[in-house]
């Protein structure tokens, strides 16, 4: 039984009425909902061993059920575990292939991977996370998903906004919040809750959004979401965006009767505040969530420093030498490359021996903490090239012939632990490694038919 603060219970009894509030409190003591999404960037559905007979409403390729982090579906980026209600902010976004998209508070990456699917690896996806530790997890999840067009940054919104003035077509702000909607999933969040903390979160959300607004094109769309029930962090924030920043609230066109609407009476009475979506645990979709989609006025004049704008020209980063390009080609051109990497030799750059195809080339005067930019092809070593793990996950998007299929669960588990394996194959050199036809790593076969392990040490189980 959750020990909910009396102040919290009184607040929602006043907002919802005694009967509805008690239904909320009761639901918060039930088991949380588990669900997962199937990756549409990879040829996935036929490979999934989980049951796909209980779909999450209104979300394509999403199903109720629990997955295991050691299963090949997870390791190879075929599935992603996510709270079903948390799937909706990305689902209602108006993202099209080729767009410029920012996920400003991106970790651990559930919403980011969904945005990447909408982009179909076209355009640019900037995924930002202010926490160093969480930015690392974000990178791992995007790599596993096979995303090729993402710039992952580890910055504050204040540092990011001068770099991208009026740049993005779509921005998602899944704002840090008081976490009321996650109490049954993360009961420790209750210890931090107070009405003062709610108001502190509201101030922080406005600070983040003030920077996000600077980066959104006139006419662009902003998706604002939280995992809290708090009107101060939901309706009041959206009302502030409308009244102070000339946004309009759009209809997300989600009509499932189990999904509630916003409450105008909890803010300034604007009738459009019914358009955002509210998820309550007693309604049976998932955990608590709020999701709104807004459009920035098309005639807002964005103040852009003309001097900075004139400097936004591509610098000439270090290109591969002819010899280095030959070393890279000798390895990666043995594999079928997905769209976007076929012309790698025209795009590839090298920094500190790491070879990558960037999602975006930033101006020379820009200094950002970049976690990853595009696809890391691998690393140059003395007179040789070693392909990187991200490339293996990306190559899993298309059919391959240089693949070693592990025959048993024990072989698969041993490989995840970092062990070498004896294999029967005529292949030599670098190969892709798969289990149950799901590619998850590189390996290298020597003349003695030993498969050398290239699964990253930081991921070994």
Describe the model:
The chain has 461 residues and is α+β, with helices and mostly antiparallel strands. The chain folds into three domains: 6-296, Rossmann fold (3-Layer(aba) Sandwich); 314-399; 401-460, Roll (Archaeosine Trna-guanine Transglycosylase, Chain: A, domain 4), CATH 2.30.130.60. The protein contains 14 helices and 22 strands. The strands form four sheets. Strands 4, 5, 6, 7, 8, 9, 10, 11, 12 and 15 form a ten-stranded mixed β-sheet that branches. A five-stranded mixed β-sheet has the order 18-20-21-22-19. Helix 1 (6-16) crosses helix 2. The longest helix has 21 residues, at 195-215.
Topology, pairings included?
Layout: H1 6-16, H2 18-27, E1 35-38, E2 62-64, H3 72-75, E3 79-81, H4 88-91, E4 100-103, H5 110-119, E5 124-128, H6 132-145, E6 150-153, H7 157-160, E7 168-174, H8 195-215, E8 216-226, H9 235-245, E9 247-250, E10 260-261, E11 277-279, E12 289-296, H10 306-311, H11 322-332, H12 344-347, E13 349-351, E14 354-357, E15 370-373, E16 375-381, E17 384-387, H13 389-395, E18 403-406, H14 409-417, E19 421-422, E20 429-435, E21 438-445, E22 450-453
Parallel strand pairs: 4-5, 4-7, 5-6, 7-8, 18-20
Antiparallel strand pairs: 1-2, 1-3, 6-15, 8-12, 9-12, 10-11, 11-12, 13-14, 14-16, 16-17, 19-22, 20-21, 21-22
Helix pairs in contact: 1-2
Mean pLDDT: 94
Radius of gyration: 24 Å
How far from one another are the termini?
34 Å
Question: Total number of β-strand segments?
Answer: 22
InterPro entries: Methyltr_RsmF_N, MeTrfase_RsmB-F_NOP2_cat, MeTrfase_RsmB-F_NOP2_dom, Nol1_Nop2_Fmu_2, RCMT, RsmF_methylt_CI, SAM-dependent_MTases_sf
Organism: Lactobacillus acidophilus (strain ATCC 700396 / NCK56 / N2 / NCFM)
Active site: 227
GO biological process, one term: RNA methylation
């Amino acid at each position: 039984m959750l020990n909910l603060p009396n102040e919290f219970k009184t607040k929602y009894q006043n907002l919802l009425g005694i009967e509805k509030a008690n239904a909320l409190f009761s639901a918060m003591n039930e088991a949380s909902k588990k669900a997962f999404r199937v990756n549409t960037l990879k040829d996935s559905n036929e490979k999934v061993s989980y049951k796909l007979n209980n779909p999450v409403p209104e979300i394509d390729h999403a199903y109720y059920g629990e997955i295991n982090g050691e299963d090949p579906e997870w390791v190879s980026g075929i599935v992603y575990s996510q709270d079903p209600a948390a799937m909706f902010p990305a689902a209602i976004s108006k993202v099209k292939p080729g767009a410029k998209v920012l996920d400003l508070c991106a970790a651990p990456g559930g919403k980011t991977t969904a945005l990447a699917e909408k982009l179909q690896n076209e355009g640019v996806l900037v995924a930002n996370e202010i926490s160093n530790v969480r930015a690392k997890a974000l990178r791992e999840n995007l790599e596993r998903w096979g995303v090729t067009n993402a710039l992952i940054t580890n910055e504050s919104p204040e540092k990011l906004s001068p770099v991208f003035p009026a740049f993005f077509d779509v921005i998602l702000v899944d704002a840090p919040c008081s976490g009321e909607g996650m109490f049954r999933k993360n009961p420790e969040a209750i210890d931090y809750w107070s009405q003062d903390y709610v108001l502190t979160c509201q101030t922080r959300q406005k600070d983040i959004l003030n920077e996000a607004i600077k980066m959104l094109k006139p006419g662009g769309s902003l998706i604002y979401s939280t995992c809290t029930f708090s009107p101060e962090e939901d309706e009041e924030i959206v009302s502030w965006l409308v009244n102070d920043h000339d946004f309009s609230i759009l209809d997300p066109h989600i009509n499932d009767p189990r999904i509630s609407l916003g409450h105008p009476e909890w803010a300034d009475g604007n009738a459009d505040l019914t358009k955002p979506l509210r998820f309550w645990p007693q309604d049976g979709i998932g955990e608590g969530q709020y999701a709104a989609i807004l459009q920035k006025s098309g005639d807002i004049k964005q103040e852009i420093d003309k001097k900075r704008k004139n400097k936004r020209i591509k610098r000439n980063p270090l290109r591969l030498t002819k010899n280095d390009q030959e070393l890279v080609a000798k390895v990666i051109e043995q594999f079928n490359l997905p769209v976007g990497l076929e012309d790698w030799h025209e795009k590839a750059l090298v920094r500190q021996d790491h070879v990558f195809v960037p999602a975006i080339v930033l101006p020379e005067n820009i200094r950002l903490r970049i976690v990853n930019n595009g696809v890391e092809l691998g690393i140059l070593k003395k007179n040789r090239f070693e392909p990187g793990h991200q490339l293996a996950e990306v190559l899993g998007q298309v059919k391959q012939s240089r693949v070693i299929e592990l025959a048993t669960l024990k072989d698969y588990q041993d490989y995840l632990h970092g062990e070498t394996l004896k294999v029967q194959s005529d292949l030599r050199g670098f190969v892709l490694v798969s289990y149950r036809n799901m590619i998850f790593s590189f390996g290298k076969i020597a003349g003695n038919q030993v498969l050398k392990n290239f699964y990253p040490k930081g991921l070994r189980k």
